[in-house]
Design goal:
The protein has 247 residues and is of the alpha+beta class. It is built from seven helices and eight strands; from the N terminus they run H-E-H-E-E-H-H-E-E-H-E-E-H-H-E. The longest helix is centred in the first third of the chain and has 23 residues. The termini are far apart.
Length: 247
């Protein structure tokens, strides 16, 4: 009987350890709805950049008739040149699939924009993201420039690094030099990646604010905590196009 109890104890302990391991790799809470955001990046041929954007401007209404465009930018600094970045909103994966199917059958969209402009694109990338549960998209009150800061975090998801990451973001927000537009967590693409979309009035006001933040003890403390979970980071300065909803 003692041996049997000992066996049960070992089995229970093994199961508890397994649950602890699974728990440590949980992704943490998500939004209750299925709303997703597709990040699209197009690398364009240098001689065709302006032509591509002008053609999209003329035909953007054909594309937005199918789904919501959140923002459309050209990349000014950070990475490859002659690149555009845009965000599309969908209710869920079924909605996106229905939109793609409808676009394939939309002759006006195909003939006026897609087919004539495919030759201008060198490379396309797509990433599916969710807003983090504690964030919603905020629209700036006036025009400015945007920064997309991308953080590659250690495996484990928001359950591991979410609280520390949130504190670091809020420390910057509290200084008031920048406006938080949205925080996105990758679902399809490179996993454990977080994108932060910031708005600034100008590139110079952003630079001044960053210098200020480097000397603020609250920001320094929050960032030092967050970097314990960080593997790499990069950013891009984005200029909104004339037809971008986010200006």
């Amino acid at each position: 009987m003692l041996a049997l109890r000992s066996g049960w104890t070992r089995a229970l302990a093994t199961r508890v350890r397994a649950l602890q391991v699974c728990s440590s790799f949980a992704t943490g809470p998500r939004q209750q709805d299925g709303t997703l955001y597709e990040f699209r990046t197009y690398c364009l041929k240098p001689s065709k950049m302006n032509e591509f954007l002008e053609n999209f401007k003329k035909n953007v209404h054909l594309r937005t008739a199918h789904s919501e465009l959140v923002g459309y930018w050209r990349v000014e600094f950070g990475g490859r040149m002659n690149k555009v970045f845009h965000i599309w909103k969908y209710d869920n994966f079924a909605h996106r699939a229905a939109v793609r199917k409808a676009l394939a059958k939309d002759k006006e969209w195909q003939e006026q924009f897609l087919i004539p402009n495919l030759a201008h694109i060198d490379k396309q990338e797509s990433e599916i993201t969710y807003l983090v549960p504690w964030c919603k998209i905020e629209r700036p009150a006036k025009e400015g420039v945007y920064e997309l800061a991308t953080f590659q975090m250690k495996p484990g998801g928001p359950a591991l690094w979410g609280d520390a990451f949130k504190r670091a973001i809020n420390a910057h927000v509290d200084l008031g030099y920048t406006k938080l537009v949205g925080v996105f967590h990758t679902e399809y693409g490179l996993l454990n990646r977080v994108h932060i979309l910031w708005w600034n009035e100008t590139a110079d006001s952003r630079a001044a604010g960053r210098h200020q933040s480097h000397e603020d003890p609250r920001v320094v403390a929050a960032v030092r905590e967050s970097v314990n979970y960080l593997e790499s980071q990069q950013n891009m300065l984005l200029i909104p196009t004339s037809f971008s909803p986010l200006k």
